[in-house]
Amino acid sequence: MELGLALGVEMSLAELFAAAGSGLIEASGVGVLGEAFASSWVLAAMLIVVQFLLAVIAADFVSGFMHWIEDSYFSEKTPLIGKWIIAPNMLHHRDPRAFVKNSWLRSADVPLIIAGLVLLGAWGLGLFHWTLVVFVLFAVNAAEFHKWAHRSRTENGRLIVFLQQAGLVQTPAHHAGHHRGGRDRRYCTITNYVNPVVDAIQLWRGLEWVILKLTGVAKRPEEEAEPTQTVIVSERELTSPVHAEAVNHTNANGGEVRTAQATQAASSCEPTLTQRLTRSAAEALASPIRTTADALTKAGTRVPTG
After folding, report:
1. 85 with 33, same domain?
2. Are 2 and 79 members of one domain?
């Protein structure tokens, strides 16, 4: 494998480690900077980390690009992709948690086919590289990261929650921004770091303008995506920040629906939310009992106190 150094020198990964380990490097064009770092493993490690991160960023961008296409063009009646790609996407907007129950294979079936073709093509053209494998692994699992953003903490488990809280994968709170309003931003589903950039430069709006000018095809009207139904809010759902921050859903008539539980959830996404809701419910149930007890006491009826 070849590593393209920013300094203009190419060497294999093995050669780079060997040079770093021995403290010797003999390659024209490296210059003073290259010689200063060649005696350690730091440069080699940094190059690997940078390439890994670039592969992940590329996969995140591709996930956003595909998501944008699904949300913006074609319909459920489009041949081939309508049934297998567009229809599931529109269902997701009607019921954001419907796909959470899908198996990994069902979510990754189409990406797996595309990934296989990409890897075979790269191998045949002599372009196969370990960073391509990293890119494919993350891209194929984009739907899985997407699921995590819609699942409750209990459903995700401690490891996934830790990855989200550490900022290593996309957080539910970040993804919630996509489900607000016209669902026209935060298309990328793997990390929190690509969306702010592409949204800030209005990349998707720019692409939509170019497509409109070149082909005359406008972005699919939002109403064609069919308004979302009221989400079923449960205690378990309220522990998922994506429902705590994106609980404004549109009913079949286009009106805003916001449940009392959802309103309370939207005000806070802290881990103690469930406990506070439970306490509030207990107080609400206890209030009429206390009122009845007081009334009976005043009427001269003896009421057991414990």
Report:
1. no
2. no
